Each structure stands twice: as C-alpha cells, then as structure tokens.
Amino acid sequence: MKAWLMDNEVSDQRLDHNSGVELDEKALGDIGVLYYHLDNLDDVNTLAKERHYRNRDEIEVSPKSMGSEEAYMAKLKIFFDEHLHEDEEIRYVLDGRGFFDVRDRADRWVRVAVEKNDLLILPAGIYHRFTTDSSDYIRALRLFQDEPKWVAFNRPADDKTSRTEYLRAIEA
Ligand SMILES: CSCCC(=O)/C(O)=C/O
Ligand SMILES: [Fe+2]
C-alpha cells in the first residue's frame, strides 16, 4: 500500500502529485479508510458477506471502454469532482491502477495508490475523488450493500447525515 500527502501543483491529475510525505495504513485507519490486499476473490466475497454487501458491478475506466478519448476525459472529470456518498464505498481492483484521494482531518488531500488485488473501503460521508494514473486503465469491482447505484454529492455536502455521522465517528 502506498499513500502520501499530495503536493499542491495544478497539473495533470493522473500524475503522482507526491509531496514526499508518505502515510501508512494506520494513518488511513485514523480517518476511517480501510485497505486490504486480497489475492483471492473468495476473500473479497467473505469480506463482502461480513459487511452485508449484496450487489456488485464491474467497471472499466479507459479510453477504449468509454468509446473515445473525449468520453474518457469527461468520465474522469466526474470521478475527480470532490464528493461524498451516503453509503460506504468498497472498490476492488481487478486490473490496472488508479488513485483514490481522500481528505484527512486537516482537510488535506491524501492520495492512495491502488493496483491489482487492492481493496479499499471508504466510509460514508468522507470527501473523496478518483482518477486513473498515467496508464489510463483500471478495471474494478464496485460493491454495493443494496441495489447497484452510484449517487455522488459534490462538495459542499456538509448537511448530509452521512457527513455528520462520519465527523462524529472520527472525533479524537
Ligand atoms: C475504479 S472505481 C470508479 C470510481 C468510483 O467508483 C468512485 O466511487 C469514485 O469515488
Ligand atoms: Fe465515490
């Protein structure tokens, strides 16, 4: 697992933007973000069952899967808008690479690099965003507790119940 505080350079979102300050799994856990490396789909299924996930879909984010470079860039822009969800978000990488960016307690961006067999759990109410890296390719499972849906609330969404509950949950 590699995670770091982002630099503040405004350039291609698919570059590393590594400030040089690396973070470990404990630092991620501190803001409710859980990381697992699972080589085996059975382990993903067990975890999903334990957390009462009943649905999933598969997504490929690449220029090919989106049909054109323009459609791909438009999709990336949507994923990269800072947002939160009312439900916990689980993503399991089947192939390729990408970055999930999450806000820390000080509202700084923490970049979590994910690759094949990485699984990330983002709590409901955490502000975050996603981008592919410069390989422009990721294939992932999106797991849902209920019906497959991807409802994102762009920031500001501080009035959402999930946001209030998240902030309460990570209180020191
Ligand atoms: C690689 S999964 C695509 C991005 C996504 O599902 C998400 O929820 C971003 O916040
Ligand atoms: Fe999201």
From TrEMBL:
In terms of InterPro entries, this protein maps to: ARD (IPR004313), ARD_euk (IPR027496), RmlC-like_jellyroll (IPR014710), RmlC_Cupin_sf (IPR011051)
GO terms for cellular component: cytoplasm; nucleus
The secretion signal range is: none
Record: residues binding Ni(2+): 83, 85, 89, 128
For activity, the cofactor(s) needed are: Fe(2+); Ni(2+)
What Pfam family does this protein match (any one)?
Answer: ARD
GO MF terms, alphabetically ordered: acireductone dioxygenase (Ni2+-requiring) activity; acireductone dioxygenase [iron(II)-requiring] activity; iron ion binding; nickel cation binding
The record's comment on cofactor binding reads:
Binds either 1 Fe or Ni cation per monomer. Iron-binding promotes an acireductone dioxygenase reaction producing 2-keto-4-methylthiobutyrate, while nickel-binding promotes an acireductone dioxygenase reaction producing 3-(methylsulfanyl)propanoate.
**Annotated CDD domains:** cupin_ARD (cd02232)
| GO biological process annotation, one example | L-methionine salvage from methylthioadenosine
Indicate where this protein resides in the cell. Cytoplasm; Nucleus
Where this protein primarily resides, as one coarse class?
Answer: cytoplasm
List the catalytic activities from the record.
1,2-dihydroxy-5-(methylsulfanyl)pent-1-en-3-one + O2 = 4-methylsulfanyl-2-oxobutanoate + formate + 2 H(+); 1,2-dihydroxy-5-(methylsulfanyl)pent-1-en-3-one + O2 = 3-(methylsulfanyl)propanoate + CO + formate + 2 H(+)
EC number assigned by the record: 1.13.11.54, 1.13.11.53
Which enzyme class? oxidoreductase
The similarity comment for this entry is:
Belongs to the acireductone dioxygenase (ARD) family.
Q: What does this protein do?
A: Catalyzes 2 different reactions between oxygen and the acireductone 1,2-dihydroxy-3-keto-5-methylthiopentene (DHK-MTPene) depending upon the metal bound in the active site. Fe-containing acireductone dioxygenase (Fe-ARD) produces formate and 2-keto-4-methylthiobutyrate (KMTB), the alpha-ketoacid precursor of methionine in the methionine recycle pathway. Ni-containing acireductone dioxygenase (Ni-ARD) produces methylthiopropionate, carbon monoxide and formate, and does not lie on the methionine recycle pathway.
UniProt protein name: Acireductone dioxygenase
Q: Which organism is it from?
A: Wickerhamiella sorbophila
